[in-house]
Amino acid sequence: MEKIDSFQVNHLTLLPGVYVSRKDRVGSEVITTFDLRMTRPNYEPVMNTAEVHTLEHLGATFLRNHPVYKDKTIYFGPMGCRTGFYMVLAGDYDSKDVIDLVREMYGFMKDYDDEVPGACARDCGNYLDMNLPMARFVADIIMRY
Q: Which residues have a Cβ under 8 Å from the Cβ of 17 and sit 6 or more positions away?
């Protein structure tokens, strides 16, 4: 089997940031996948599942309620390695096009101080695995970049 593109990125030199991971075509539409790298792979500690899960709920809620991007948001979710998130948007974008959106989203996460959206047994398959204080801490760290 061929090695997929994401496994060809040198994770020994990859730094936190906002990267275009791939662009795909669905019919005549372009779908852009972003790598929102929050920690330096294989160098900094990965995020624990509780804060990753919380950030996933907050990020997805933020994006799907955003006045400009709600209808362009296809997916927001964690990387299996727990060093960041994937954000998938309908449209042909570059990193510079979404920096303000990403900063706004992480600012929302950093300042969020209410019940985590969807954090109940009816709405989530693992609602007890949440950690809002750590999610806010991690979002605050990424806001410094």
A: 37, 95, 145
Round the average pLDDT of the chain to a whole number and report it: 95
Cβ neighbours of residue 50 under 8 Å, at least 6 residues apart? 129, 130, 131, 134, 135
Q: Looking at residue 9, what is its pLDDT?
A: 87
Percent of the chain with pLDDT over 70: 99
Query: 0.85 cut: is pTM over it?
Result: yes
Q: What is the Cα–Cα distance from 32 to 131, expressed in whole angstroms?
A: 29
In which residue are the tokens 């990020």 written? 59
Alpha helix locations (H) across the chain? 49-65, 95-111, 132-143
39 and 45 Cβ atoms separated by less than 8 Å: yes
Three-class SS state of 26: strand
